[in-house]
């Protein structure tokens, strides 16, 4: 039985259901030759494809499109201040001058500059982090600063792989888990 278009009263969901069913431009299920199950299957497949496409686009952002990658291995040996590390990258136009985020512990996170691909010990750099007390280059967070001076790089790799690479290079920087497949290589001076 077909619904009486525009005559059903009651809840908003009844109204919406009637609007969809009474749409003169929408072919009926019988005309389309499908069932509700086929529509649900199509929606699931479409969502899977959309999710895969989003994942693929996100992954491709870590792949260099052209040119050489700038290696940060020498700068991550913890022999300089956060100001020297961050200002050097800004001067070379390898990172954006304005932090994308400031954590409550005052760690400033900087994106690599558009078109730049940075690496640290062979891993793609996701972000650069740093803070130095009383330095106008850095913004202060709402909580207690992590240290007088701290800096590093967040790379796309597991903590175990990053630690193994640093051990092989003789680097004593601290390695922190930063998120799924994200690890921070961190230098801190108190």
Produce the secondary structure layout.
Elements: H1 12-21, H2 29-32, H3 36-60, E1 70-71, H4 82-91, E2 101-102, E3 108-110, E4 118-120, E5 123-132, E6 149-156, H5 159-169, E7 174-179, E8 182-189
Parallel strand pairs: 1-4
Antiparallel strand pairs: 2-3, 3-5, 4-5, 5-6, 6-8, 7-8
Give structural attributes.
eight-stranded mixed beta sheet; globular; 32% helix; alpha+beta; 190 residues
What does this structure look like?
With 190 residues, the protein is an alpha+beta fold. The chain folds into two domains: 12-60; 70-189, no CATH class. 32% of the residues lie in helices and 22% in strands. It is built from five helices and eight strands, in the order H-H-H-E-H-E-E-E-E-E-H-E-E. It has helices at residues 12-21, 29-32, 36-60, 82-91, 159-169; strands at 70-71, 101-102, 108-110, 118-120, 123-132, 149-156, 174-179, 182-189. Strands 1, 2, 3, 4, 5, 6, 7 and 8 form an eight-stranded mixed β-sheet that branches. Strand 4 and strand 5 (123-132) form a beta hairpin. It is globular, with a radius of gyration of 26 Å. The relative contact order is 0.12.
């Amino acid at each position: 039985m077909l619904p009486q278009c525009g005559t059903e009263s009651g809840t908003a969901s009844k109204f919406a259901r009637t609007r969809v069913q009474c749409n003169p431009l929408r072919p009926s299920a019988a005309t389309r030759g499908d069932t509700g199950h086929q529509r649900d299957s199509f929606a699931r497949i479409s969502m899977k494809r959309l999710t895969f496409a989003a994942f693929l686009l996100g992954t491709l952002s870590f792949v260099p499109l052209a040119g050489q990658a700038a290696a940060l291995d020498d700068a991550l040996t913890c022999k300089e201040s956060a100001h020297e590390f961050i200002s050097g990258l800004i001067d070379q136009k390898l990172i954006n001058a304005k932090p994308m985020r400031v954590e409550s512990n005052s760690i400033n996170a900087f994106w690599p500059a558009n078109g730049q691909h940075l690496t640290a010990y062979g891993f793609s750099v996701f972000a650069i982090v740093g803070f130095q007390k009383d330095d106008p280059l850095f913004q202060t967070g709402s909580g207690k600063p992590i240290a007088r001076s701290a800096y590093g790089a967040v790379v796309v790799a597991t903590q175990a792989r990053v630690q193994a690479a640093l051990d092989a290079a003789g680097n004593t920087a601290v390695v922190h888990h930063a998120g799924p497949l994200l690890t921070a290589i961190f230098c801190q001076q108190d």
